[in-house]
Write a structure and sequence with these properties.
- The structure is a single chain.
- By secondary structure, the chain is of the alpha+beta class.
- It contains 5 helices and 9 strands; from the N terminus they run βααβββαβαβββαβ.
- β4, α3 and β5 form a beta-alpha-beta unit.
- The protein starts with 5 loop residues before the first strand and ends with a strand.
- One of its GO terms (molecular function) is acyltransferase activity.
């Protein structure tokens, strides 16, 4: 078995080209029209809360966090999360989610929100948001809107428009 030197780092501008390739591989050209992508187009992601994983110096995975206001919750939108096909099913994505969510919590985020698969994200601490509680800038499957709350009243305040915040 090959030895892998996985290293998790905070994203910086030098990673942009590799991240674009990884996201293209994972999501294809249609990724730009999704509701979550429309939120990300409203303003920049927070590089201090966005991370990559390298294997022997090559960027092989990334996760980004975008500051958002979701109803009455000042939180972060997680995504895209992508891992190169050669490195899937090794726990790299789960570790990136863990690192990013913990960094957001430490920075004072009230919650991390994403649009994703409940069976994957549920064991990582994400919960379903109330049906159609958040209004996205485009179609979204309400069953896939998930939150990792960092305060007891987050679910009660997750009602209304979701969008980028400064």
């Amino acid at each position: 078995m090959l030895k892998h030197d996985l290293v998790y780092l905070t994203e910086d501008a030098s990673h942009d080209a590799a991240i674009e390739i990884i996201n293209e591989e994972a999501f294809g050209p249609g990724r730009h029209v999704r509701a979550a992508a429309r939120i990300r187009e409203q303003g920049p992601h927070d590089r201090s809360l966005s991370f990559i994983c390298t294997d022997d110096g090559e960027t092989i995975a990334s996760v980004r966090m975008t500051p958002i206001l979701a109803g009455g919750v000042a939180g972060h939108l997680l995504g895209p999360l992508a891992v190169r096909p050669s490195h899937k099913n090794r726990g790299i994505g789960r570790e990136l989610v863990r690192i990013a969510a913990e960094a957001a919590r430490r920075k004072g985020s009230e919650a991390v929100i994403l649009v994703g698969d409940p069976p994957y994200y549920g064991p990582l601490g994400f919960e379903t948001v109330a049906w159609k509680a958040l209004l996205f800038p485009g179609p979204v499957d309400p069953a896939r809107v998930l939150v990792m709350p960092f305060a007891a009243d987050v679910h009660a305040r997750l009602k209304g428009v979701i969008g980028w915040r400064e």
